[in-house]
Amino acid sequence: MPDSESTFPKRLKIPPLDSEARHAARQRQTQLTKPPGSLGRLETMAAELAGMQSTPTPAVDPAVVVTMAADHGVAAEGVSAYPQSITAAMVATLSEGGAAVNALCAANGLENIVVDMGVDGEVPAGVLDRRVAGGTQNMAHEPAMTHQQALKALEAGQSVLEDIPSEPRVVGLGEMGIANTTASAAITALLTDHSLEAVTGHGTGIDDETRAKKIAVIEQAIETTDPDPSDPISVLRSVGGFEIAGLAGLTLAAASQRVPVVVDGFIAGAAALIAAEINPRVTDYLLASHDSVEPGHAAQLDALGLEPCFEYGMRLGEGTGAALAISVYRSACETHTEMSTFAEAGLETE
């Protein structure tokens, strides 16, 4: 693989997991007032977070879901059930607190930050501005973006972490962008050992005829733009999206600071694939959320070595799955740190 990190605007060093902290967390689990293993995956989640955060007592809060938005030129090919104008309209709804991810963040005590990575239209003043351009080009006829735009979007995404005042201990990935499942299917097919047919789903609810057209459009895009699957910047430039690049940059930045990243659904999964191609060590800091209905999501999770928290038939995006999953990871940390040990409770174990 080419040294893509050498072309990345800001080189990031991602530290290895702290094996001592992880071991200490596992040892603590054996001493808590419960039968060993009785909390199942909550126990392993706490140990995983301990290794990521380099502490035997990991914590989730403060936590944030970052929802990045951008438009895609390929929407002109009729690959979505909704017009491109919905992106800007939904960004306004997100900013006003009326979207599903806003409700789930409020229900779970999470901050939600909305970022404009490249929306074609006006966005409210409260949205964080990291706009690269007013949407990508139509990848069916030309590369989605220039090489420099791809790098700029990655760097812009990475800078978002610096502008979150709460200094989150966990970050959830979210997105919004009409036709971004088309870009994500292209990325997933290029970066995994799965066919386009296997990883391309119905997105916003398109019918089978439109799905077949969507696959044909992606095939045309790959043939036209000729991305190099061994170079994640080439893949982004050819068939990516600004919000996907931004999420990849944010993921790399978070991992470099030992901040675990909760991957939402299919589009966030595509961003995680890009980040992992840029720096494979980033996978040590990824946490899964749900198992999306989008067929390509399973391929992404397999490639990233992730096991989903739950399967609720979700496919909305926005960061909804991440918001729910963070509440599970919080529960794992709280039981790990707040339960008494047998010794603290004055109980004999022999």
Q: Briefly, what is this?
A:
With 350 residues, the protein is an alpha/beta fold. Helix content is 45%, strand content 9%.
How many β strands by DSSP? 6
CATH architecture: 3-Layer(aba) Sandwich
User: Helical content, roughly?
Assistant: 40-55%
Tally of helical segments? 13
Structure write-up:
It is a single chain. By secondary structure, this protein is α/β, with parallel strands linked by helices. The protein has one domain (63-331): Rossmann fold (3-Layer(aba) Sandwich). It is built from 13 helices and six strands. It has helices at residues 19-31, 41-53, 86-96, 100-107, 147-160, 180-191, 196-199, 208-225, 232-239, 242-256, 266-278, 295-304, 320-338; strands at 63-70, 111-118, 128-129, 170-176, 261-263, 286-288. It has a six-stranded parallel β-sheet with strand order 3-2-1-4-5-6, sandwiched between helices. Strand 5, helix 11 (266-278) and strand 6 form a beta-alpha-beta unit. Helix 5 crosses helix 10. The radius of gyration is 20 Å and the shape is elongated. The N and C termini lie far apart (55 Å). Mean pLDDT is 95; it is low at 1-6.
